[in-house]
Specification:
With about 600 residues, this protein is α/β, with parallel strands linked by helices. The chain has 20 helices and twelve strands. Helix 1 crosses helix 11, helix 2 packs parallel to helix 5 and helix 2 runs antiparallel to helix 11. The chain is elongated.
């Protein structure tokens, strides 16, 4: 679970300025929007002045001349109509900029996720990452759409209102200035406490997403082992914490937003009416000025109320921004290659030179691993769970960074090749293959337009997948649902093989790739694999020892070390760990020990 942290005032300003930096590409549109906003603000300020002029100069003195009164009325109505039209274009421009900013921010966050190393995903729940890309960026959008526009509009309006107040009555305008410190105090108090509460609320929402994601991915296991009640309780506990965090926000909103500002407004209204009441004892007052002051006072507090109501959105946006930027600033990146690496993998010869590795920088899962795999040869990795087999593949595929020892390909350090070159020349087939939403053809091609439809079909025939594909209603255009759940595990594996063969890699990496295929299909696959291995370097994790008996080199791993090496016959002759594993698997006709690393 993620820890709730408090964002202080200094950090909030940093986050705000960083969010505002996204407005730089949209300066022209923003200048236009702010210009339109200024025009509408001027229109709002002129309205009460026109009515004050009508009351004092014409209505009170009963000077009901048609032409000037008509002109005042036409001007008032014209200003209101123009304000409506200009406000539409002003809001349209602000919304356009806000959506563009969030679009870019989402792309930045999503792109960052693609560049992170697998170590980051090992320690971060998927639901939490999804929450940052979707929920948090949506909260930031509200800040640009609602908060900034309201705050700037309120600033324009407040300045204009005070200028008008000073023009009407300097002394009373000075009295009204004392309202500002009270409002500022309320806003600061709200900002201080709501920051804590909203941070807690966003973290609980992230935890809800993480728990939901975990439940959906493991639904089969949940139902098989009757874990529904436990999951409901865990989800309910997090949901209850989310509810409590929400209630804290509601309480502070109910106390310090509109109610507190309305109370200040009442005191300000009493002040204005008392002033005019006292001055009326010594001299007559202008009704129009009284109307204008009360109108301005009302217009003064309306944007203040709007600002206060949107402070909650602001706090949510700042908290959401901190979470998004925390991900953008994440340093757990995928292993970087040396700059200027233009080497090409021609043969595919692999050499591990005293490679040691630890996932947590405390306990080594690989200790001084050294071996060589030449083109056309197969090196098989066998051993018990946790012996380091998968770690060897993870380092060779550059999923994790290593610091001790080195891996060479064709006489060059693996770090001297570009990531694109490594991915292009290596083909990986996992025990549990992943299929994307789309057609079978798309899943084999993986959007590599250099692979033709003919090559896709040839690859499928090569791995014996063509026979089941052509039986589908749409053949190679058959739609694959999420993760390929409508196919059997064997069919998914065959498609993964076809995907790898279509890419024509120099190096073939098999992580127990035939474990989920039936015996008859496996025999056909083994024939196909033997043809593939003739011109390629193959590294294979073996679960069933019968599948790697023809490997040129078999490495037996135990607790991160290579304890035995040789071919099948040599290892049996040693009567060591490999011999024991072989006897265990063949004594009962089935695998009795799980040795998948």
């Amino acid at each position: 679970m993620e820890k709730t942290t408090v964002i202080n005032g200094k950090d909030q300003r940093k986050i705000l300025f960083r969010l505002l930096s996204y407005t730089k590409p949209h300066k022209r549109t923003l200048v236009l929007a702010f210009s339109l906003l200024l025009i509408t603000t001027i229109g709002d300020i002129l309205g009460p002045i026109l009515i004050k002029t009508f009351i004092d100069d014409y209505l009170s003195s009963r000077n009901l001349a048609f032409e000037p009164i008509f002109a005042l009325g036409a001007a008032f109505i014209g200003i209101q109509i123009l304000n409506v039209i200009i406000s539409y274009f002003q809001l349209l421009n602000f919304q356009k900029v806000a959506l563009k900013i969030i679009q870019q921010l989402r792309i930045d966050v999503f792109s960052k996720v693609q560049s992170l190393g697998l170590k980051y995903f090992d320690k971060t729940p998927a639901g939490s990452i999804v929450s940052r890309v979707t929920n948090d960026t949506e909260a930031i959008k509200d800040m640009f759409v609602e908060v900034l526009v309201s705050f700037i509009q309120a600033a324009f309006l407040l300045i204009g209102i005070f200028i008008a107040m000073f023009i009407l009555n300097v002394k009373l305008a000075f009295f009204c200035l004392f309202i500002l410190p009270l409002i500022f105090l309320i806003m600061q108090t709200y900002r201080r406490f709501s920051s804590i509460f909203y941070q807690d609320l966003r973290e609980r929402l992230s935890q809800l997403n993480a728990k939901m994601s975990e439940s959906l991915q493991g639904m089969a296991i949940i139902q098989v082992f009757r874990q529904e009640k436990r999951l409901r309780k865990e989800f309910g506990d997090i949901n209850d914490l989310h509810y409590r965090a929400g209630m804290k926000n509601i309480k502070i909103d109910g106390l310090l937003l509109r109610p507190a500002i309305d109370l200040v407004y009442v005191f300000a209204l009493i002040l204005v009416l008392s002033y005019f009441g006292l001055t009326s004892m010594n001299s007559p007052i202008e009704i129009g000025v009284l109307y204008a002051f009360i109108s301005y006072l009302d217009r003064f507090f309306e944007p203040i109320n709007q600002m206060m109501m949107r402070l909650s959105m602001y706090q949510q946006a700042i908290v959401a921004g901190s979470r998004a930027f925390k991900l953008l600033d994440e340093t757990e990146l995928a292993p970087a290659q040396r700059p200027g690496g233009n080497n090409r993998i021609e043969k595919g010869e692999i050499e591990f030179r005293n490679v040691s590795f630890s996932y947590d920088n405390q306990r080594d899962v690989m200790k001084n691993i050294s071996f060589t795999a030449k083109p056309g040869e197969t090196v098989a990795l066998v051993g018990q769970t946790g012996s380091g087999k998968s770690s060897i593949i993870n380092l060779m595929m550059r999923f994790y960074e290593f610091e001790r020892g080195d891996i060479w390909i064709d006489g060059q350090s693996i770090k001297s090749y570009s990531t694109e070159e490594l991915r292009k020349r290596m083909g990986l087939v996992l025990q549990d293959p992943f299929l994307f939403f789309g057609s079978i053809k798309d899943n084999i091609r993986l959007h590599n337009q250099d692979i033709s439809d003919h090559e896709i079909e040839a690859a499928a025939q090569f791995v014996q997948a063509h026979s089941f594909i052509e039986k589908l209603e749409d053949g190679y255009n058959h739609q694959v649902v999420e993760r390929g759940s409508t196919f059997s595990s064997g069919q998914r594996q065959l498609l993964a093989f076809a995907r790898t063969i279509a890419a024509n890699p120099k190096i073939l990496v098999l992580d127990e790739a035939t474990a989920n295929i039936d015996t008859e299909t496996e025999e056909a696959i083994q024939i196909a694999l033997s043809k593939m291995r003739k011109e390629r370097t193959t590294i294979a994790i073996a679960h069933r020892l019968s599948t790697i008996q023809d490997a040129e080199l078999i490495l037996v791993l135990h607790q991160g070390e290579i304890v035995e090496r040789g071919n099948h016959q040599e290892l049996l002759a040693k009567r060591g760990l490999y011999h024991k594993m072989y006897l265990l698997q063949n004594s009962s006709g089935e695998i009795v020990e799980d040795v998948v690393g």
